[in-house]
Prior knowledge:
The protein has 345 residues and is mostly helical. Helix content is 65%, strand content 0%. It has 15 helices and no strands. Helix 3 (52-63) crosses helix 4 (79-99).
Amino acid sequence: MRIPEARGEASARLFSVLELAPGTPAANAARIEFAEAVRNVVAESPEIVRDEDLQLTLFCLYEFAYGGIDGVPDLEWDPALLATRAEIEAAFEAELRAVVPVPPRPEPTADAVARTLFDLTAPTSGPSLSRFVAKQATDEQLHEFLVQRSIYTLKEADPHSWAIPRLRGRAKAALVEIQSDEYGGGRPQRMHSAIFALAMRGAGLDDTYGRYVDNVPAITLAALNQMSMFGLHRRLRGAIVGHLAAFEMTSALPNRMYGNGFRRLGYDEDVTWYFDEHVEADAVHEQIAARDLAGGFVETEPDLLDDVLFGAAASLTVDGWAADHMREAWTAGRTSLRAPLAVAA
């Protein structure tokens, strides 16, 4: 991924750090200036989850734990950058814990946890992004939808995979079973990220990872940053388990409608395959995720039940905000992106 455009003082200072050779006096001074900028922006931000500057900064800092940034040295374990990242994470997590509505605490058994999660993720009859895509979305809006989803889906499953070495027993086996399907069961052309890339190409979009970072708003970045934060911290392993459970349990029905929306406008199987694949796969995954992954995890580590519930609720809340942003923008007749998208014919 290339370095994106800065969105404020924090991201601008970070990109100054990335342009300097590590260990030089100029680079050390730039790290200090970056830390001070982040501290100021965090203190002044009215809402971390929608802060364009902070969410882009956090996204780029996390990228060092994934594929890295083009032309930038490996800074994954840079102490100064990790310390500054931790300041953003602390404010981000505190805000999420303050605003996310968590369901009542069930008994710490697999069956009770599964029932709570099925209640929490039950479909509702109100307005939804998937219904809008199925019935109303224009071709331009469908392209925006793919662009918004590309930020996570071109590396689908990676944030949740951080949890594998942190679980054991029934929960570990369940997570590996789910992730094996996400990664194509050993067939690279069937990896869900690869199938989504095929959909983007079929719609005339660039499937290069990170190509559209500059186009998407903070709330889209926040949805991915939340996953990375939960996955990269062992103390938040309960939250990443809950996040994945809710993520899988709310996938099959919306993806059926997304696929129908693309078919309605004449797109072929190269574009709809990704959504149709999730209708079948996630109908199975939701049972595994609720009972074996989340339920099995809680039976092994009952002290982390509250974090499992928080992670599930946070998944629904933040992803819901991102979906509402798109639907509300389109209903009002405006783009959901930070800038209009030029789509190839």
